[in-house]
From TrEMBL, chain A:
Protein name: PhnI protein
GO biological process, one term: organic phosphonate metabolic process
Automatic annotation (TrEMBL), chain B:
GO BP terms in the entry: organic phosphonate catabolic process
Organism of origin: Paenibacillus pini JCM 16418
Protein name: PhnJ protein
Pfam families, per the entry: PhnJ
Molecular-function GO term, any one: lyase activity
Length: 389, 288
């Protein structure tokens, strides 16, 4: 019988799954432990939690193991798991000035209240492959940790570092001077029943509220956000961003007490990255400001926040938050439908991969049309010749 | 699967989808937005149809899943396994036995009845997307029934190519009001939607839309008086069952490369072949 490619589907799926496991396991050596991924693949785990839209480092690490390191596949596994969890309530807004910071930099001012902290960053390292890691042993790690911890203890005994400073927002310096434009970069917020829009429960509609924009970007795919933001800063757009502030750290998540009104309960801590992008706006831009008179030149703020440590993502998000408009977009990154409909990694990879599915029926229909048009053209050809003669 | 709720989705989600589905039935051809959930199969692989099926299915149902007319296609198997294991229903490949059929890009050859539901997987629910990329704008166009650009597109096809080039996703006017996308079924299947006995539900997961064509509804493909709508036709019949009235797929022999034509509805074709040897109950033709 012809065309066995699509028959025996059930068996084919089972065997394909076995092969997948074979490719993951066939090499010699110990199985990689989920705990190791969680601890040593920190940034990959953070990316999965952000794009998978579920804060659970263990499950994100498990997903990475199961997906053999494919970030989009791992986020997809997490996202699908997330669908099975009921949504019982919303947390209270998080005040990130209370963040326990591991890193904080500003590109607008050299000195800022609370100070700048480089923290764990590769920004100023030379990108040379470290061949020593090929041979890294327990002993190396122990030696390093002992020395490092001793240094830390010595530092912490210095008097001047005893107190943890607070970290007021850098952009508040500009705001106090009246240099920050209102946040009305989008349509007025539509808070029906005093509830925030929720993209996991309601399909997006346009013009999108700022909540919808930020939620979509917070779980958007890092690469997509990066590409769109880059296009806007490089040439297809008018955003010239300066990073007012970039922070990475831990924040508590609070919920209203279910019984005692007015009380709050902390249900845990999450690590987040946060960026505030300062963009110059020379006023009179009708797309942004609803005022009738031409506004004076001011700075606009673009905001980005996502789960985990992912700096490219929040900076890109901040740029796009500022670049997107509901009407009159002149470039792709300004068009909110273009950006918001195409940044979700689970949706884009799902749709692109679906082209692997059989399209025998559709293609047959295409063939019929193309052949029919061909035939018509062939029949018409001699007639045209006659006309010419 | 016992760790998950009956039919995978939680009850609130199923309730929401059923309410949106009822709204869709009440306004034939209108795309109702819904809070589409991520499913354990990829976006674009039938998550919309899957959510609709899971929200309407009950233990007494008998399920059939086809992909491009084929019960045994890998994606159909995958979806059938997921639905039947989470919702504890019996499955079948026989169109007549099924109470719910989930399909991708085909309507079965055998005519479906009033007690049956056909659930379509829809990749692109917006029929106007080819002429207008913006969702904000297409919603306005539907609201005002501003379909002029679609008509112009059809007209230009005729002027430039002598015929309307649309092969699947052929636009249809539903109940004399909204124009909608019948999903990527071939033209061949479009007339089956007109004044049918069966409820047709359309789910687009990635695009987060549900729409419906209720039974006994007028469904008219867009056409001009002098350029009437036509369907695919063949010079020959199926080489397996001999049927000359079914939709055929062209394929090539893996050894000698010869071209063959077979029914795309594999269950129908199988029954036809059996019919030639023994007694088997065949469903009616859709067009009487």
């Amino acid at each position: 019988m012809a065309y066995v490619a699509v028959t025996g589907g059930r068996e084919a799926i089972k065997e394909a799954e076995k092969l997948l496991k074979y490719y993951r396991c066939h090499a010699e050596g110990l199985p990689i432990e989920v705990g190791q991924i969680m601890q040593q693949m920190r940034l990959a785990v953070d990316k999965i939690m952000g794009e998978g839209s579920l804060y659970d480092p263990l499950l994100a690490a498990l997903a990475l193991k199961q997906a053999e390191g494919d970030a989009i596949e791992a986020s997809f596994l997490v996202r699908a798991f997330r669908s099975t969890l009921p949504r019982t309530m919303y947390s209270l807004p998080i005040d990130t000035t209370g963040m326990e910071i591991i890193r904080r930099v500003s590109a607008t001012f050299k000195e800022i209240p609370g100070g700048q902290y480089l923290g764990p960053t590769r920004d100023y390292t030379k990108r040379l492959l470290n061949m020593e890691l090929l041979e890294e042993s327990d002993e190396h790690i122990r030696d390093f940790m002992d020395t490092f911890m001793t240094e830390c203890i010595e530092h912490s005994e210095c008097d001047e570092l005893q107190e943890v400073p607070s970290f007021p927002r850098v952009i508040d310096l500009l705001r106090s001077e009246g240099l920050i434009a209102g946040v009305c970069s989008v349509e007025p917020e539509r808070h029906e029943h005093d509830e925030v829009d929720d993209i996991t429960r309601t399909a997006m509609s346009f013009p999108a509220s700022r909540a919808v924009r930020l939620q979509s970007m917070a779980r958007g795919e890092t690469g997509a956000l990066l590409a769109f933001a880059y296009s806007s800063a490089r040439g297809y757009g008018d955003v010239h961003p300066t990073i007012g502030e970039l922070r990475v750290g831990d924040v508590p998540v609070m919920i209203p007490h279910p019984l005692h009104a007015g009380e709050e309960i902390c249900i845990g801590r999450v690590r987040v990255s946060e960026a505030e992008i300062v963009v110059r706006e020379d006023g009179g831009d009708e797309g942004r400001n609803s005022g009738t008179d031409k506004e004076p030149a001011k700075f606009g703020i673009g905001y980005g926040l996502c789960f985990g440590h992912n700096e490219d993502k929040v900076i890109g998000m901040g740029i796009l938050d500022r670049s997107m408009k509901s009407h009159g977009a002149a470039t792709p990154a300004e068009d909110e439908e273009f950006v918001l409909y195409h940044i979700d990694g689970i949706e884009s990879s799902g749709f692109i991969s679906h082209f692997k599915l059989p399209h025998y029926v559709d293609f047959q229909a295409e063939l019929q049309r193309i052949r029919s048009i061909h035939e018509r053209d062939r029949e018409a050809e001699p007639k045209r010749e006659e006309v010419k003669q | 699967m016992s760790a998950y709720n009956y039919a995978f989705l939680d009850e609130n989600t199923k309730k929401e989808i059923r309410r949106k589905t009822l709204k869709a039935i009440a306004i034939p051809g209108y795309q109702v937005p819904f809070g589409s959930r991520e499913m354990p199969i990829a976006r674009g692989w039938g998550t919309g149809g899957l959510q609709v099926t899971l929200s309407v299915i009950g233990k007494q149902d008998i399920l059939k899943v086809i992909d491009q007319g084929n019960d045994d296609s890998v994606n159909a198997c995958n979806l059938r396994d997921l639905i039947s294991s989470t919702s504890e229903v019996a499955t079948t490949t026989d169109t007549l036995e099924a109470t719910i059929i989930q399909t991708r890009h085909r309507i079965p050859e055998e005519k479906m009845q009033a007690h049956q539901i056909l659930v379509f997987q829809v990749p692109m629910p917006e029929v106007l997307r080819t002429v207008e990329p913006s969702e904000q704008e297409t919603r306005r166009m539907h609201g005002e029934r501003d379909y002029s650009r679609l008509w112009v597109q059809l007209y230009e096809d005729i002027v430039q190519h002598g015929e309307i080039r649309i092969s699947y996703d052929y636009p249809v006017l539903v109940n004399g009001h909204y124009i909608c996308d019948p999903s990527p079924i071939p033209r061949f299947d479009v007339p089956k939607l007109h004044q049918a006995e069966t409820l047709f539900l359309f789910g687009a997961g990635r695009e987060k839309r549900i729409y419906a064509i209720p039974p006994h509804t007028d469904v008219v493909p867009l056409q001009f008086e002098d350029y009437p709508f036509t369907v695919e036709s063949y010079d020959q019949g199926c080489e397996k069952c001999g049927c000359t009235t079914s939709y055929l797929e062209e394929s090539f022999d893996r050894v000698d490369g010869a071209r063959h034509y077979y029914c795309s509805d594999t269950s129908f074709c199988g029954k036809k072949q059996v019919e030639q040897g023994e007694l088997v109950q065949m469903g009616a033709n859709w067009h009487g």
